Model the fold of this input.
Amino acid sequence: MATFPSKEWLYELKEKLNKDEKYAQVAHKWEGDMLCLIEPGGELKTPLAYYLDLWHGQCRDAFEAEDPVKLKPVLLLSGTFENYCKLLKGELDPMQALMTRRLSVKGSMAILMRNVPTVLEFVRCAREITTSFSTGD
Done:
């Protein structure tokens, strides 16, 4: 269990995704990487970028991207620190967050809509490993 956002949190998320049987079953057809941009907001003063390589129910890699412009992920998810926290606390539904643009997506929205169960399981795993929140500043 870890504090969001942190490198430890990202490591824990990778481990959780790779060990969670329900996620593996639901996400077995998912093919694509994702970059999560965490925009400054509230107490967070500097942006963060988390890269996740998701493939057939496994997370092949996860790291904090030093230069996210160089990456070309299938999906680019962005939002404020506050909205990511609300999502991870269960105060914001993942699909509602996307539809109301509290979190925005660049890439194929059709991929997300065809894979709603995968998205929900991914968020469940992220919620389960999150114990606290900190800006790290």
Notes: The radius of gyration is 14 Å. The beta strands are 2-4, 31-39, 48-55, 58-64, 75-80, 103-107, 130-133. Residues 40 and 46 are 6 Å apart (CA to CA). DSSP finds six helices and seven strands in the chain.
